[in-house]
Structure formats: structure tokens, C-alpha cells
Amino acid sequence: MKRTTVNGLHRKWMKNPTYRCEYEALAGEYSLAAALIEARARAGLTQEQVARRMKTTQAVVARLEGGGSMPSTRTLEKFARATDTRLKISFESEKARG
Fold it and tell me: Taking a C-beta distance cutoff of 8 angstroms, is the pair 33, 65 a contact?
């Protein structure tokens, strides 16, 4: 029996135009979440350590990294300082996204 994987399901579902459209609409949120996780990992910090540096709770950091919300620039600046990184915001052409 063939095993079902998350990546396999995702590839299958991406063939559905409705799924693809919704997935792509969320790409910005998930790329931000991935960037936050990457910054914390590069700094070698736990969520708890980042939270302490931001003067907040681990739950707040978990929510930021979960990608379900759009944090303010001020919050992103605090996260950047906590992870010894620099916040850089840029705009890209829609044509570049494919």
C-alpha cells in the first residue's frame, strides 16, 4: 500500500485551481513565518529566549511563527533586535512571482 504524505497531497491539491489560488494568497504570510523561524534558528535561540528579549511570552512568539497573523512593523523590529538581525521590507513585481 502506498503511503500518503503531506507533500504528495499538496502536489495533488495544487492541480485544483481553487486550492492553488487560496494557497498562493497565503504565500506572503507563510514566507514571513518562515523568515521568522529562520532568523531565530540562525540566532540559536528558543522561542522562550526570543520572548524574553522581546519582553513578551513564548506564546506570542509561537503565534508570530505560526503565520496566522500579520504583525506590526514595530513587532517585527522587536523580533529582529531579539534575534540580532535587521528587518528589511521590500516590494517585488507581481510579474516576478510567476
Answer: yes
Closest-CA residue to 40 (of 71, 76, 74, 73) = 76
CATH class belonging to 30-88: mainly alpha
Over the stretch 54-87, which tens digit does the pLDDT of each residue have? 999 999 999 999 987 789 999 999 999 999 999 9
Q: What are the domain boundaries of the chain?
A: 30-88
Angle 17-25/6-13 helices, nearest 10 degrees?
110
**Where do the H-state alpha helices sit in 5-92?**
6-13, 17-25, 27-43, 47-54, 58-66, 73-82
Q: What confidence category does residue 24 fall into, taking pLDDT thresholds of 50, 70 and 90?
A: confident
pLDDT value, residue 98: 55
**Cβ atoms 33, 67 nearer than 8 A:** yes
